[in-house]
Amino acid sequence: MKRKAALLLAGMLVCSAALAGCSGSNQASNDYVTVGGYKGIEVDKVADQEEVTDEDIDNYIASVQQQNAQEVTDRPVQEGDIANIDFVGKMDGQEFDGGSGQGYDLTIGSGQFIDGFEDSIIGHNVGETFDWNGQFPDPYTGNPDFSGKPVTFTITVNSISTLPEVNDDFVKTVSDESTTVDEYREEVKKTLEESAKDNYDYSLQAEAWDAVLEKAEVEKYPEDEVNEIKDQLIQQYKDAAESYGMTYEDFISSQMNTDVASFEKQAEEAAQQSIKQKYVAEAIADKEKLTPTDEEYEEHFQELAESYGFEDVDALKQAASEDDLKDMVLQQIVQEWLADNCIQVVNDSAE
């Protein structure tokens, strides 16, 4: 969102009359593109919206607990604490692959490590480093070569924290809507259901949009717009190279694994694809009378500002031009319309 919206949107298409589904009533065009068969376009069936389970709700609340973990500084590690640790494992005095970690959050008693490892941390304070001598179980499915072998872990306790109890007081600190645990579980369920619907809608919109773009053909590109987007993209990489203290050529070689000529060709193709999307959206919006009024655009800008975390619409407009924002809004409106008017088809062909 903070990148220029012109790098994300645009398009010019021409759908020839020979394409299946092209007809006067189901064809949209402008000076740059023509796209036919867009209304009622067939797409592969999208997986049904997932049902929210009690386990999903429990997992969500557990993540909220983790986010609100409270640091402990006045006592050693206890059962049930979350200990942030560094650890290095050695067998026969040698470190081994997969036996070390840094900044690892370990809930004591969760059974994530081999028997005895977590218990060894109990009673240690923040900042303490100690050795624990243990033994891999036999058999050890994680790595059969380690089965039954002795191991020494050097463990450092970086911090200790506890999870808040999920009760009505906790709910009041994490929710503006709920005051009891039962109310909060219903709130979480609604949130997850909305998220599942958003995921379903996004998938269907993407399927319909991709299908329409595939049917579309480009008659010509407005070179000034293509060059503008291409130059903006290249400038981003030049700025990045400068921030790394590298030449543009060296940055492209090391970060993109290609040469400047090839990269700039890719940038031009990306600009053309962006232009293609822009003009496809405009053609369909004009034909179906989907283009918002200025007042409606402002309402969409407000939604964008809230969605992307901008303070207000003015802040949003500082990150992207109004024309670019209108392109974004119009493309989203067209994608939603296409999804509402597409036909989902079950693809029975399996390889």
From TrEMBL:
Pfam families: FKBP_C, Trigger_C. Keywords: Cell cycle, Cell division, Isomerase, Rotamase, Signal. Residues 80-128 form the PPIase FKBP-type domain. It is an enzyme of class 5 (isomerase). It catalyses: [protein]-peptidylproline (omega=180) = [protein]-peptidylproline (omega=0). GO terms for molecular function: peptidyl-prolyl cis-trans isomerase activity. Its main location: cytoplasm. Residues 1-20 form the signal peptide. Coiled coil: none annotated. InterPro entries: PPIase_dom_sf (IPR046357), PPIase_FKBP_dom (IPR001179), Trig_fac (IPR005215), Trigger_fac_C (IPR008880), Trigger_fac_C_sf (IPR037041), Trigger_fact/SurA_dom_sf (IPR027304). It is found in: Cytoplasm. Its EC number is 5.2.1.8. This is peptidylprolyl isomerase. It comes from Faecalicatena fissicatena.
